[in-house]
């Protein structure tokens, strides 16, 4: 094995170790947060993962801006980002509603009956519900998950698989599986559904030249609409 091959192997091992450290942190914090019945346990774990990944990025002099996280500047750019986000929302709801959900149901795959129980604490409490939307849905899930999964994870996986068409496809698939498996509490149907959403978000991320902000907005809108529907339906998943 020549020096170039050794350096590449060493580089790949470091990438895998970094990813492992980040996700072991997430799983450990999630376990502890669940043990103490903390609200927004997943979001707490995600942000701990973001802190660890930020430290690892700084060692390589990387910034989140390089992964596509940058606030729009000017009204025109804001409007463009919002329009792209609306397009993403429409795409996700169309694919999930007309393709994924019917396919899962045809195989008898549905979410466990107790999935909605984790949201029972804010039912009939509009103020608690609004606070949850802002802190957990938008800050925790929309911002946190996009930074970590589409920003950090996808780009680090591409460093491992190669920044070419095949490498991007492989990275997309791996990140889709990881994202889906982290939602295993939703049953097999939930794992597949969230995996499909991750695949859509990840694909769009590359289509729009690795810009995170429109996907963050879209993620927040999708989760908000889903939870608002759940809230207005008294906690019953329709």
UniProtKB/TrEMBL annotation:
Domain CAAX prenyl protease 2/Lysostaphin resistance protein A-like: 130-224
Pfam family, one: Rce1-like
Alphabetically ordered keywords of this record: Membrane, Transmembrane, Transmembrane helix
GO biological process, one term: CAAX-box protein maturation
Transmembrane parts of this sequence: 12-29, 35-57, 78-99, 119-143, 164-182, 188-208, 215-232
One Gene Ontology MF term: endopeptidase activity
Protein's name according to its UniProt entry: Abortive infection protein
